[in-house]
Amino acid sequence: MKTSTMQVRLIICCFFLGSLIVIIQYTSRTNNFDYRRDVLERRISYDMGQQMVEYSEAVEKQLRSQKEGIHLTNLNLDAKSKRIAKLNESINKTQIKERIFNLERHDVTHDMHTKQAATKKVCSSPMTHVAFLKTHKTASSTIMSIMQRFGYFRNLTFVMPLKKIDQYRFNYIGEPGETISYENIIPKREEDEYDLLCNHVVYNEDAFQNTFPNDTFLFTIIREPLKQLISTVNYYGYTQQGYFAKILNQSLMNPMSDYLKSPWKFEPSNPHYSVTNNKMSIDLGLPVSQIRNGSFIKSYMERLNTKFELVLLQEYFDESLILLKRFTCWSFKDMIYMSKNIWPLHQNLNLSADDIDNHRKWNVADYALYETFYKLFWRKVLKEKEFFDEVYHFRRILQKVNIHCSNDKQSKSLSIFDSKWSPGFILTPDDCIFLKMNEKQFITVIHKRMISRAYPNGNNPFEQTTIEDDLAHLFQ
Fold first, then answer.
1. Count of other CB atoms within 10 angstroms of residue 170
2. Which of 23, 199, 298, 306 has the CA that lies 20 to 30 A from 4?
3. Mean pLDDT by 10-residue block, N- to C-terminus, for the chain (476 residues)?
4. What is the pTM of this model?
C-alpha cells in the first residue's frame, strides 16, 4: 500500500515538475518571441538609411519564393537580409507589414494617401489619356519605350517637341526649365486630343491641365537619390563634358567626394542645367528658389500627391509596372520591355558616410520626395490582391520575351498563354524590332507621324523622310 502511495506521489510530482518546465519554456519562448518582435520592429523602423529597402526586398523575395516553393533562408541573400527573414518567419506577415509602413499612424503620408484614394480613377478598358513625367536616370527611358509602343500601335496623338530630330536636346520639350506650351509642341489636328506624353519636360500644373483632357492619368518614376547620383555620374560623367568635366578632373583621388564637400563650387548657376542638384524634384516642378525650403517642400509634396495618380520606384521596377498595369487596365503585352539606356560602371565613387550625409543635405528636396512617395507606393501595393503572384508571372513572361527577342535572326513568333491577370498574346518578329528600338529611333518615327498629321499638305517646318523610309532599314 505504501509502495502504491509513493508511486502516486511520484507521478504527481513528475506531473507538476513537467508542467513547470513547460511553463518555463513557454515563457522563455514568449519572451524570446517578444524580444525578436522588438528587434525586428526596431530593425525595420522607417529610417530610409537603407533599412526599409533591405526589408522590402526580403519581403518581396519571401512572397515570391512561396510561389517557387523555395525557403527564403536558402536563397542567396546577404547576412542582414537572412536575419530579417528568419525573424519574419515566426511573425504574422500582415501585422509586420502594417507596422513597417506605419499604416496605423496618422502621419502626413497617411493623410496624403487617403486624399488620393478618394479620387482614384477606375478603369474598365485600357486608358488612352496617359501623361508620363519623365525624370532623369530613373529607368524612365524604358517606361518611355512602353508608352511609345502603346501609343504607336493605337495611332494615338503624342505631345512631341517642336524641334528637328538632329537638334540639340531633341527629346526635350522646350528649353531648360520650360514646361509645355502650344509654342513648343507639335500642333494636333483640330479633331484630336493630346493622348500621351513621354518626352522630357518640366511639370507645371496649369500647363498640364490646359494641354490634356480632364481624365488624363498622370504618373512618374523616382529613384533613391544616392543611387541616382551614381547612375548620373556613370551616364553623364564618362563624356567629360560641361560641369562634370570640372568635377571629375579636379582631383585624382576621389573627385566626387571633393565635389560633395562643396557642391556649389561646381554646380551651374542655373539649377535647371544641373543633373545633380535635386533634379527629380525640379523635373516635377519644384521652384528652384525653394529647393532647400523644408516647409515649402513638404506642402509641395502634398500637392503633387493630389495630382499624380502614381509615383513609381525604379528599385522596384517590375512591381511598379504591375501597379501601373492595374491602374490603367493595360495588358502584359503593353507592359513588356527590354531595358534602355543602361550604362556600364565607369566611375567607382568610393563615397564615405560623410559624403553621403553631404549628398543628403545638398539634395534635401529629392530625399524628401523619395521618402514620401516610397511609403505611399507600398501602401498602394499592400492594398492589391495577389500582387506578388502577378509580378512573378510577369517576370517569367519577361524572361521568355527577352530570350526570344535577343536572337538577332529570330523569324518565329512566341506564344504567351492566357492568365488570370491578362489575355495571352503572340509576340511577332516585328514586335521584337520595336522592343529593341532605341529612344532616338522611336522618337524619330513618332515625331514624323505627328508632323505629317499637323501639316498634311507638306508645308511643315522640317524637311524629312517618311516614316516608311525610317522603318524600312529596321525590317530588312
1. 15
2. 23
3. 61 65 53 42 40 46 44 38 43 41 43 51 88 96 97 98 89 96 95 98 98 98 95 76 77 83 93 95 98 97 98 98 98 93 65 95 98 97 96 96 85 92 95 93 94 84 55 44
4. 0.76
